[in-house]
Amino acid sequence: MASRKSETNNSRQARIAEMRRADQSRDRRNKAIAITASAAIVTGLIGFGAWVMIDQQNKKEADEARLKAPVAGEQTWDAKKLGRNHVETPVKYEMNPPVGGDHNPRWMNCNGDVYKNPIPEINAVHSLEHGAVWVTYNEKAAAADVEKLAGKVSKTPYTLMSPVKEQSGAIMLSAWGKQLTVDSADDARVAAFLTKYVQGTQTPEPGAACTNGLADK
Which residues have a Cβ under 8 Å from the Cβ of 159 and sit 6 or more positions away? Predict the structure, then answer.
């Protein structure tokens, strides 16, 4: 009788030990799965983060390359040869509209200002020195184009717009040492020129004011 009880106790203890071993094995397996999953997630996050960083760097480099590249068809003058003296007397410029040179101490307001009448060149050139883009047009420009350009300029700080009857092209955009001629306001180069040269690297006095100057509307 005592022998059967002993066998029963031994059998119960064996089953308990087996259950404990099974539980421990399951715990180890679950931990291994959890560690593997966590490692995979971390690796994925690192990989995604690296991809985002590389993508952002590629976009940055592409933007920088685009800004360094000239706008198709633009003319360039040597900025070092363009005078920057303040003068009270008239100045004879070699190009029309001028893209730099000696100029009046007062700049034309260029905070998206649209002038219906011609403005003094010697004041507009000062605006270019401050990093503005000067949009000009003559009678060859379609009325719809003039209206579109006026809308774009009015929403763009460091720009100004006015008619220049004697200019060669229908629509011309001028920055310090840079100039572009187009036939239509819808030409993609208009936006490209504004993006590149409004307060662009060509600006002799970046950040200088475009308000509190001359307003001759």
Answer: 110, 112, 113, 132, 133, 134, 135, 153, 194, 198
